[in-house]
Amino acid sequence: MSNGPHRIVFANEKGGTGKSTTAVHVAVALAYQGARVAAIDLDSRQRTMHRYLENRAETMRRRSIALPTATFEVFGGDDAGELDALTEKLGQEHDFLVFDTPGRDDPLARHVATRADTLVTPLNDSFVDFDLIGQVDAETFKVRRLSFYAELIWEARKKRAMATIKDARREMDWVVVRNRTGYTEARNQKRIDQALTELSKRVGFRVASGLSERVIYRELFPSGLTLLDKGQLGELGTSHLVARQELRTLVSGLNLPVPAKPAPAALESAA
């Protein structure tokens, strides 16, 4: 890849949006496509992504199997320079760096978000979550103003655009991923559709379909397996197959620059 590894940052200052689950599945999906992936967990307290990948490594050891996976680290410090040093080190041997950030306002989360090549902001389909990026009028549901977070990313993207012209850097692609849409009442979903469309035109993010709320994601965590690990999951129900298709649609919608190299043989089992 040109310009070093592609940085994917999963960031949302609210918890409970499926951020870590989405991050793990995207990282493993990239590994299945033959990419070298490193995952950096910035939530040193919860460390959900790190624990998920630890469980995956343990399952591979216990079952004596090899599955596509990611190198994984937890960054427990508070110094942006030390984080950049770790990022530089991992970037020398990987095609993608995947960052999972805490579900709260955090200086390091802002630091990596403003340096993302692809910034992924998972949202549940509710105005509670929408408030992270914009505030709406209580009567008309029209967007009244950007949130602090949206303004932060907007400014970062403007600076990035100038650097892209000057230094041939990648432009930042901001993708708002709508998770758990199946649980949204139809009228409210329409209002959110309209608000997201309006705000996307103002600040330049894209909207992608995400993952529904499914028990399978919670069930897979202890083993570290993902919906792509077809040969390890046993007999799958219809909901599992639908969930796998949701994941494929999400990964495709992110438009990530996967390097042209042979995918591992295990990819055939995920088809």
UniProtKB/TrEMBL annotation:
Coiled coil: none annotated. It holds the Pfam family MipZ. InterPro entries: DNA_Partitioning_ATPase (IPR050678), MipZ (IPR015223), P-loop_NTPase (IPR027417). This is Chromosome partitioning protein. Transmembrane segments: none annotated. It comes from the Bacteria.
